Amino acid sequence: MSEVNVNIEYSGSWTPDQPIIDIRGLHKSFGSFEVLKGIDLSVQQGEVVCIIGPSGSGKSTLIRTINGLTPVNAGEIFIEGQLITGPKFDKLALRRKVGMVFQQYNLFPHRTVLDNVMMAPRLVLKEPKSEVRERARALLAKVRLGDKENHYPGELSGGQQQRVAIARSLCMRPDMMLFDEVTAALDPETVKEVLTTIKELAADGMTCVLVTHEMGFAREIADRVIFTDAGRIVEAGPPAQIFGDPQDARTREFLSQVL
Ligand code: ADP
Ligand code: MG
């Protein structure tokens, strides 16, 4: 089952009642291997969407297309009403609007935590230092690392480094955040603090699309859960439905293995 996609044509003047992310008929192949076989998905502002599914089903590829990291073969993606899959779009503006956090946080090891958070707005957006510093400090306080600004990444736990990566992404003031298995590489004891940070962000109204293997977390945080398998959306719905009463045999099989 794919989502029913309301066929709104954008005039370039996007309003928040229209989908903030609108994906239509998306296909992506690597060579002759078709990874995404026609994805339709729209996300409203403030919505929290969790993507679950077996390894290799195309989850990472899907969310990487949303911020332009992976070019697509067919279909369209609109971000705030702007077509980003056409030949002409402003990559920089897109990166500013769409924040992304990966499993590997890749902080700069020889820069302090504060410098890591400040770097993109300073170098990419050329924003004034004092303004960026103030914002970076507020974000570090928000992810509960206000006392670590002068530390180096290597002095922090994995969970703390991942929270720095989240603050770093937020420092670009994105309108939406994408998370790709951000806790998968963490020690179990630091997973929770990262999930708490994401939960708080969602509660503040941030639009979030998350790929996660943390089913309890997905159930708790998601407005909608999307189950993908072999490049297709098999089933989508509120968490109570997907986890409590899955309709498709593939969803049931996947959940029986991970729950
Ligand atoms: P998931 O995140 O659900 O595990 P991915 O989107 O990472 O799935 O990958 C889906 C499939 O596409 C996998 O079989 C993977 O090997 C393949 N794939 C992903 N990225 C590339 C790439 N850059 N080149 C070739 N194959 C790729
Ligand atoms: Mg993946």
Give a summary of the structure in a few sentences.
By secondary structure, this protein is of the alpha/beta class.
Report on the structure:
The protein has nine helices and ten strands. With about 260 residues, the protein is of the alpha/beta class. A six-stranded mixed sheet has the order 6-7-8-3-9-10, sandwiched between helices. It has a four-stranded antiparallel sheet with strand order 2-1-4-5, covered by helices on one side. The chain is globular and about 50 Å long. Adenosine-5'-diphosphate binds near residues 30, 35, 57 and 60. Keywords: Amino-acid transport, ATP-binding, Cell membrane, Membrane, Nucleotide-binding, Transport.
What are the key terms here?
disordered N terminus, nucleotide-binding, alpha/beta, about 35% helix, 10 strands, binds magnesium ion, single chain, six-stranded mixed sheet, binds adenosine-5'-diphosphate, membrane, ATP-binding, four-stranded antiparallel sheet
Largest sheet: 6 strands, mixed
**Oligomeric state of the chains present here:** single chain
The named CATH superfamily:
P-loop containing nucleotide triphosphate hydrolases
Mean pLDDT: 93
Return the structural class: alpha/beta
Stretches where pLDDT is under 50 for at least 5 consecutive residues are 1-8
Bound molecules: adenosine-5'-diphosphate, magnesium ion
Number of domains: 1
Helix content: 25-40%
In what range is the share of β-strand residues?
15-25%
DSSP strand tally: 10
Shape: globular
CATH arch. level architecture: 3-Layer(aba) Sandwich
Helix and strand string, N-terminal first?
A: EEEHEEHEHHHEHEHEEHH
CATH fold assignment:
Rossmann fold
Count the DSSP helices: 9
Distance between the termini: 22 Å
CATH class: Alpha Beta
Give the strand order, joined by hyphens, for the main sheet: 6-7-8-3-9-10
